[in-house]
Design brief:
The chain is α/β, with parallel strands linked by helices and 411 residues long. The protein has two domains: 9-39 and 299-408, Alpha-Beta Complex (Aspartate Aminotransferase, domain 1); 44-297, Aspartate Aminotransferase, domain 2, CATH 3.40.640.10. Helices cover 39% and strands 17% of the residues. It is built from 14 helices and 17 strands. The protein has helices at 9-13, 41-54, 64-83, 97-108, 130-139, 156-162, 185-194, 214-217, 242-247, 282-298, 300-319, 347-356, 369-375, 391-408; strands at residues 22-23, 26-27, 29-30, 91-94, 117-121, 142-146, 167-173, 198-202, 221-225, 236-240, 258-261, 266-268, 324-327, 337-342, 359-360, 362-364, 380-384. A seven-stranded mixed beta sheet has the order 4-10-9-8-7-5-6, with helices on both faces. A four-stranded antiparallel beta sheet has the order 13-14-17-16, with helices on one face. Strands 1-2 form a two-stranded antiparallel sheet. A hairpin with a 2-residue loop joins β1 (22-23) and β2 (26-27). It is globular, with a radius of gyration of 22 Å. The protein starts with 8 loop residues before the first helix and ends with a helix. Bound molecules: ligand C6P. Residues 34-35, 96-98, 125, 127-128, 173, 177, 202, 204-205, 225, 362, 366-367 line the site of ligand C6P.
Length: 411
């Protein structure tokens, strides 16, 4: 299908069985897509079809079912690597972004020495924060933080100050799951590479909404989760440049990741299997491949345009409510989510009242506690959008927030 076709959210909604349900007697308005997205019927069917027709372990059994499962699993690998313009051997399936980032952090441990520096940013999710913090503590490394400005954008001078010749690793989020900020990862990568540091990108909130070409970004590693891009839970991926992955130690040892084992030594398998020890999440991988097909059919440029338009509209509607404080940059500099607070009302109460109206959002620290402390808040409410959301749903969100203001008589 050509990329120029406009995205028809009403038509897309019909592919998602869950969107027909009611919550608290009201039609479900699902605006918690940054936490996880809903699944189209084709993805649900792919899982069912695998279990009902060719459930078997992969890369082991020579029988018919084993051959079919192996072929489907490898096809899913190909679809995901093509989706981000990577080579087949450069994409490792993991269970999530979290596991992907931990894999890199553990596997790079032996290449780091005391006083080496790692630069992350103040807006990182715990998944791209705690692994580096713990690694720094264990190996006596220095962890540096690229600062954000008052609009929630990474400060250019702080990027330059914190990435120096001492820096070995720069690991930043593509899109903040709280501020919505889209970071210029290509530019950060250029600065990292000028200093001989590697760039790791947490694209958990990027890939679902923005066309990603790893060769163009020139990142060394990039992590993402299937469940935030219409795929099942339990499947994620790590892209790594081939030369990097070849040098790296395996993260897990066991079956599948070996070529030969003797009583004395082990020879590891070729990429990407060297990093996929044990029986993988086969059904989930196949489901992710189907989700990628679905997104490609819509066209990622259309996805991005739709999400951008909705976010701009939501930003405008929420900005009209004087009791609402929005965190992060202007709508044209952010991806498809808006975190906010209603004056005098705890975010959990905002969420509970919206839920009673069938509207699902997230409230809390969003697994980014250092960022919350930087913003001077304990929690925020967050609405996040995807391909099946409509302007009418944003209007319902705005009406719901007006109700919150009325109930709490916030000033
Ligand atoms: N953020 C949110 O509601 P996992 O849980 O491994 O699939 O993804 C982790 C992760 C990493 N980085 C970013 C930027 C993320 O947003 C997330 C997941 C969800 O914001 C759940 S905490």
């Amino acid at each position: 299908m050509p990329e120029t076709r406009l995205l028809d959210a009403e038509k897309i909604r019909k592919d998602f069985p869950i969107l027909k349900r009611k919550v608290n007697g009201k039609p479900l308005v699902y605006l918690d897509n940054a936490a996880t997205t809903q699944k189209p019927k084709v993805v649900i069917d792919a899982l069912k079809h695998y279990y009902e027709n060719y459930n078997a372990n992969i890369h082991r059994s020579i029988h018919q079912l084993g051959e079919e499962a192996t072929a489907a699993y490898e096809l899913a690998h190909k679809k995901v690597s093509d989706f981000i313009n990577a080579a087949f051997e450069e994409v490792i399936f993991t269970k999530s972004t979290t596991e992907s980032l931990n894999l890199v952090a553990y596997s790079l441990t032996s290449s780091l020495k005391e006083n080496d520096e790692i630069a992350i940013s103040q807006m990182e999710h715990h998944s791209n924060f705690v692994p580096w913090q713990q690694l720094a503590l264990k190996r006596k490394l220095k962890l540096k933080f690229i600062e954000i400005d008052s609009k929630g954008i990474l400060k250019e001078d702080s990027i330059k100050q914190n990435i120096t010749k001492k820096t070995k690793i720069v690991s930043v989020t593509h899109v903040s799951n709280v501020l919505g900020t889209i970071n210029d990862i290509k530019k950060i990568g250029e600065i990292a590479h000028e200093n001989n540091a590697m760039l790791i990108v947490d694209s958990a909130q990027g890939i679902p909404h923005i066309p990603v070409n790893v060769k163009n970004i020139d990142c060394d590693f990039l992590a993402f989760s299937g469940h935030k891009m219409l795929g099942p839970t339990g499947i994620g991926a790590l892209y790594g440049k081939k030369e990097m992955l070849e040098k790296m130690e395996p993260f897990l040892y066991g079956g599948e990741m070996i070529r030969e084992v003797t009583f004395k030594h082990t020879r590891f398998n070729e990429l990407p299997w060297k990093f996929e020890a044990g029986t993988p999440n086969i059904a989930q991988a196949i489901g992710l491949g189907t989700a990628v097909d679905y997104l490609k059919k819509i066209g990622m440029k259309n996805v991005m345009q739709h999400d951008k338009k909705l976010t701009e509209y939501a930003f405008k509607r929420l900005s009209e409510i004087k009791e609402v404080e929005i965190y992060g940059p202007e709508s044209n500099k952010r991806s498809s989510l808006i975190a906010f607070n209603v004056e005098g009302v705890h975010a959990h109460d905002v969420s509970a009242i919206l839920d009673s109206n069938g509207i699902a959002i997230r409230a809390g620290h969003h697994c980014a506690m250092p960022l919350a402390s930087k913003l001077g808040i304990a929690a925020s409410a967050r609405a996040s959008f995807y391909v099946y959301n409509t302007k009418e749903e944003i209007d319902k969100l705005a009406e719901g927030i007006f109700k919150v203001v009325k109930i709490f008589n916030a000033k």
